[in-house]
Amino acid sequence: MDPSKPAKVVKEAAETVAAKAAELLDPKVPGVPSPVSPSLEEPTGPVPPLPPRGDQGAPDTRTPTGADTHVPATAMAQQGAYLTTSQGARLRDTDHSLKAGVRGPTLLQDHHLREKITHFDHERIPERVVHARGAGAHGVFVGYGSAAGVCKAGFLAEGKETPVFVRFSTVLGSRGSADTVRDTRGFATKFYTDEGTFDLVGNNIPVFFIQDGIKFPDVIHAGKPHPDREIPQAQSAHDTFWDFVSLHTEAQHHTIWNMSDRGIPRSYRMMEGFGVHTFRLVNAEGATSLAKFHWKPTLGVHSLTWEEAQLLAGLDPDFHRRDLYDAIESGAYPEWELGLQVFPDDPEQTFDGIDLLDPTKIVPEELAPVQTVGRLRLDANPTNFFAEVEQVAFHLGHLPPGIDVTDDPLLQARLFSYLDTQITRLGGPNFSQIPVNRPHAPVNDMLRDGFHQDAVHGGAAPYRPNSLDAGNPFPAGADDGAFVDTPVTVTQSTKVRGNPVSFEDHFSQARLFWHSMTPVEKEHIVRAYTFELGKCYEQTIKERQLQSLANIDPVLCQEVATGLGLPAPEPSVPLTDVVPSPALSQLGGTWPQDGRLVGIVVDPDSDLDGLSTVRQAVFTAGMVPLVVAPRGGMLPNGVPVQRTFLTGRSVELDAVLLAGCPAPAPDALPARDAKAGNGSGELLDPRVRLLVEEAFRHAKVIGAWGAGVDALTAAGRAPGEAGVVIGDSGPEVLSTALELLSRHRAWERFPAGVA
Ligand code: HDE
Fold this sequence. Notes:
By secondary structure, this protein is of the alpha/beta class. The chain has helices spanning 5-25, 111-121, 216-223, 239-247, 252-259, 306-315, 319-329, 385-390, 409-425, 508-515, 519-534, 539-552, 554-564, 611-620, 686-697, 708-714, 730-741, and strands spanning 134-143, 161-170, 185-193, 196-203, 273-274, 279-282, 288-297, 335-344, 350-351, 354-355, 371-380, 403-404, 597-601, 624-629, 643-644, 655-658, 701-705, 724-727.
């Protein structure tokens, strides 16, 4: 072994630390692929595997039975300095197969070739049958202690910190589908509590399409692409979806949420989460309550516009996962408060006339306020997507003492499905031994053997009762922290395939939702229905859905019918009076701007004074500046360019600042960049003009100073328009822009015809 190697490694590590320290002084735009800057030449000497990047976390190093191994997470990654086989034998060559002569056939003897190809052939596992597309991150949950009166679960105790892993997802699309499609989003959280893992497997919409789990295959078969041509991917704008929801009208409440801006979130960080079902909580005295779980994002609930969502699906299909990872990398850690709506556990299981066992119903927050019980912060990206995000397995039956289920028939079916699905997806019954799924509580089960068994179980008697293992393991009593199923009384009844009468109301809460929207949100809903039904082939399906819309609200129905060129039917059910719930609207508040993307358009050939100050100020405000210039590389003042007029597009930005008025660049030609249109001969590069036009159309904040004001005017905008701000200097414009950005959009710019 070359004795100089260790010294070389130490030197390189020191250089990495120094580079990191320099980065702290000059914050970088997130997206760094590796902890070290690559050399131009191919590296020649062996070095140990690089450490993870600063933003990355990994599952705790636990044994399959939950014990802390106290080894660093990197011990689960590659070890040593040399390439090896899977058995650790060093390899000399991985580029050429072993052949009988350089032009001869490959030899069966080539065990390295066979190991490499065989493993590669089996790298994929089945994608999730639903929620296949997703992204995840590590974090920590801190309890407030405020839940103590209703729930004894230890992770809710005041100040208690519990590691978590969260996976966000879309429902319908395949694993490689676009992030910004109109769909429900999954919001699944694994709490590694000391008392056993708790999985809260929720969505960003508080109700579901169906009331009984037996209908799940039906709704998913309808929502997935048509079985013959397998189109369309990851969307509901097609005949089978609308065929099902217009016939199975209990889906109408969830569907109107999907058609609202909730169906196209701006970011995972800006979504609410809901447990959907009513759960049963148990306190230390054994008293029970019914409760619904809510996640409230610190950044508020915000959405894309439909045009942004569509453009992004092509321009950046990874928009939501990139946003999550970049925010964490840049230190803008996403946060949510966990909240509870609590109801008395009476035999009726209703609240204010609302059936708590019906997962198509909400309880408006104005009737039962959401009480916050803890805070979640996501602070580390995965180190390896497959190991962590793809292999994480959630299950509603992962419950700690203090949280129990109810008889909601959707919840009951889920208790079966989540365990069952992992057997195929993760290749056997031992998926809880995969690192990201390993509990942090001691595991002492009598489950044995099976594919991928990682535990080395001791003892002779994995059965009870036994005397050979001294009777171990012993069941615990409630005082020893056992999970005790709540002894709920089941009233004498008859076996039946049916629903309670209360489940028959399919429209009143969809109507409640519609009437809780502001005019601009109603406009978006009208457009979404008109778009989706407009994409259906069959007129009868459109007509049938119009009947459901008439039963929700005649104005909604009329507007959509007009767009479809069809008559609006009369309601076929009595329209109930509803009291709007303002909590359902996204508008009206102000929120932190952490992790927002601010584009700064510059003209490198003119005055760049103040650019560094503005860029730094954007970083200081917890946001990310993206410098947009005619060409890549470095500006004359040393500031790096992140987007060119060719690569940049307004949809990835939350605000646009114009720091110059760049003349059309040499590549501003339709042949080089279709975005350039016929803009030659203008004062302003036509791509910048488009950037401003789109930003304005999407009601984004636009700021300008100096020559940037000329660019603003050349793009057809004027100071004084809503959300358009000019000033004498960059910092001055930025501070006003920040205030405007805290409202998410300049909502006044969206005209609204539906009151
Ligand atoms: Fe799921 N669901 N679901 N679901 N679900 C799955 O489990 C299922 C339902 C939700 O990031 C699957 O491991 C049935 C409601 C999320 O890994 C599967 C029924 C809600 C995720 C499954 C429902 C959800 C899933 C697919 C009706 C919101 C992604 C892979 C009875 C409260 C979790 C997997 C992740 C995943 C079945 C209804 C949310 C097949 C049968 C209601 C967020 O088991």
